[in-house]
Amino acid sequence: MKQRAILIAKGFCIGTADIVPGVSGGTMAFILGIYREFIAAIKSFDLAALTALLRLNVREALARPHFGFIVPLIIGIIAALLFFTRVVPLPQLLLDYPEQVYGLFFGLIGGSILVLLRETDAMSGGDYITLALGAAGGYIVFNLVPVQTPDAGWFIFIAGALATCAMMLPGISGSFVLLILNKYAYVFNAIGYFNLPVLLPFAGGVLAGLVFFSRLLSWILERWYRATVVFITGLLLASLTVIWPFQERIYETVGGDQLLVETHPVFPSGLSLPVLLSFAFIIAGIIVVLFINNLHKPRGEGLKWTG
Fold this sequence. Notes:
Layout: H1 2-19, H2 25-31, H3 35-43, H4 47-54, H5 58-63, H6 67-87, H7 90-96, H8 98-119, H9 125-144, H10 153-168, H11 174-180, H12 184-192, H13 196-243, E1 247-254, E2 257-265, H14 273-295
Antiparallel strand pairs: 1-2
Helix pairs in contact: 1-2, 1-6, 3-13, 6-12, 7-8, 7-12, 8-13, 8-14, 9-13, 10-11, 10-13
């Protein structure tokens, strides 16, 4: 019972990370020391389990997946999703207090970078090249993705798949991917109000991402774990320019609505109270990530992968 309660609490932390466009669920699982179990549990929903279910062999279908691990984790994740979409609506806070909320996100990403860099002690020349490639690739991608994207079901499906793939990686936030695709508020408002026309294609994309990417990710990590984490750290470094709380935002009027079409990072001209609060949230975000990492630091995790 105590173990289940701990897993529910860890699931809540992972769910919170998935909602906030700063720390990925994969990063949270990594710093909580359950990343290997997290990926293994996702992979346990395999073809053999599906085949047993289709044969109506319920006992075998239920025996293969790691339900003892994944169910409490899912309960915690769902609780976090409902809490931060109904009780504390983050999408609305993002609209009302963008500089302060983005400041927190910036700090959470910065803290995640520090955690990952601390795991890559004694970096070699090859590591620095990989880091630079990740940063360059991330900068290109983050600046090529259009600010406005369609609300069609096919795009929501793709957004769900991409966000899930990012969520599983120790470093990239699924919510940050939704933010870049301009679907963060759209999807989480749909979750808060159970908007099925949006949730169904998104859930389909999430399922596709879980089934296919978990296997690809496990294969990559078995062979190039250190290089993958260093590359992801580079991606996160590039994302800081996009998530920086102080942006020059350019809008266009389309059909009577003000649409955000372009942003450029700027430095605040003065130290007003909102600006000071934004910097305070940046520091708070860094402290939160480092505190959680020190509290639940994986023992012997290191930059290696054993399946």
